[in-house]
Structures are given as structure tokens and as C-alpha cells.
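G., the chain you wanted modeled:
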Amino acid sequence: QVQVVESGGGLVQPGGSLRLSCLASGKIFSINAMGWYRPVPGNQRELVAAITSGRFTDYTDSVKGRFTISRDNAKNTVYLQMNSLKPDDTAVYYCNIQGTTWDLREFNYWGQGTQVTVSS
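Predicted structure as C-alpha cells:
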């Protein structure tokens, strides 16, 4: 019912920038939280950044001041602007979208992931 597709990953040198995009499509009535995650040891995912429908944002400490999350509600899209990238930022970044479908069912979908590699 809902599809989530990320784009914008790639290879960048330390200190460089990338912008990730995540588009949600399908039978969407409203979108609440949108976020970006990356894997951490223990087969879990760390919240990198999140934004609510009221545009409240939250970031993990390691990216504060370097990453900026934003959303375009008209396009059902969330962005992650990544500046001053470090090798430790290398990871597959996953988008998560939570909301409600046309028939008022809550949904929670993940994208397929986009690879970010920071290396000289």
C-alpha cells in the first residue's frame, strides 16, 4: 500500500557533503514521523535524525551540527543534508516513514537503504 524509496547515497571524501532523499508513495492519508537510521553492532539500527509532522527534529549526538533533516509534505519526501562527513559516517542509511493510509490504517515502512561511503 505504501512504498518508500531512498536516493542520494554515494562515495564522498572526508569533509564532503551529500543529500539523501526519501519519497513515500501510495495510499497515504497523512505522514507523522519521518526518520533516517543506520546499522550499529548488535544487528540494530541507530536513529540518526527524525522529524515530526510539527517539524520537531531530533539528532543523534554524533551528527549534531553536521546533519540537517527536513521534509516537504506536498511531496511526501524527507531529506537528510549531510555536511562535514567523516569516515565513521560510512553506512547504509535507511528511511522510515510512519503515518496513516486512506482507510485510516497506521503504517510503518522502511526503505531499501542507500549506501554512504566516506573515504579518501
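Residues 48 and 61 are 9 Å apart (CA to CA).

Shout if anything looks off.
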